[in-house]
Amino acid sequence: MNIPSWPQAGEREAELLHMVLESPQWGGFHPFVAEFEQSFAAYQNALYGISAFNGTVTLELALTALGIGPGDEVIVPAISFISSATAISRTGAIPVFVDIEPWSFNIDPNCVRQAVSPKTRAIMAVHFGGTMCDIDSLAAICREYDLSLLEDAAHAHGSEWNGKRAGSFGIAGSFSFQNGKVLSAGEGGILVTSDTDFAGHARSIANHGRIPGQSFYEHYRLGTNFRITGFQAAVLLAQLERLPEQIHHRERNVTLLKNLSAGTPGIVWQTQPSAVTRNSWYLLLGRLRNTQVTRDEFSDRLRAAGVPCAPFYPHVLYRNPLYSGRSCRVTPCPVAEASIQDAFWLPHRLLLADEETIRQTAGLISNALNKIREEPKAPLEATSAVR
Ligand SMILES: Cc1ncc(COP(=O)(O)O)c(C=O)c1O
Fold first, then answer.
1. Alpha carbon distances (Å) from 299 to 1, 75, 314
2. Which end of the chain has fewer CB atoms < 10 Å from its terminal CB, N or C?
């Protein structure tokens, strides 16, 4: 097995890092920061980019810039990383947890519609694993009830819905550049938006309440310092050059792996709506079906064979200890609860492997299911033989 490590870097990162190192500006005012913001926003089909030191604070920044706070509700899927919910709670607003669709792992628009209340201000659409949500339906609900659509696109760099990229549908899209993400600087995040007023407001909050063209020491809003460094921007510029080819590579490998495992009963891969024209393939997600193998046995066996397989999250968001003592609203989430039991994911670095490794992986997946099925129930057999 030849599975690439992650993150990856080459001479381009070193070259750009060196340029920052030799400059008199290592901080957020290095020209690379603005260059990256513009390049990444354009890549995601948006006009403006506001970078920040991670993809959790970018969610908090977006909600704050929208004026969301105490007394408000924001609808969020029950399956996501904790930041999607805590960003809402940290503004003082209430997260309203709703179910996901059966096979897409993404927020279910029908559940969203049923959860809307007079207090609802926004919907947080998480493009889970890189597969885009049914963004048309979510946008229609937002129009109908006058809500803001915020995309948590932490997994969805380069993902598309009918040829339009993640983050360009809602008022803003939030991305993460944390160590494991498909575009990484170790840590980092960005908000992209095409709304000029929102962009100005968010940027001002992220930069101590300053306004462009005004004195450095004049502060017009309650802001703070969310800036990334020139070093992060240097790495991100270099990583962005490689991203399109890496996405193609993962696309090819996902197709190959799915074709090779088509004859292996027991796995249902995350569905890809026909409107998904491109996927970052941050995660290749699946659920086990009609097999005696438990998900934990399956993922343990794959890991033991050298395939990096994760047994999904240990619980839905509202079952975190945090939310037993904190205000939230929970709507019925049977699909999310069931997926906790039987879902798994394969990370994007596996999907960057060579063809031979993908063929081996398909064989190991089949073995991990078959081997357990064929295992005799030894202790019972032995006992009856002695009798
Ligand atoms: C769906 C989702 N949203 C937000 C975040 C937060 O990003 P960061 O780790 O950059 O704060 C993550 C991070 O893994 C994530 O998976």
1. 17, 31, 13
2. C
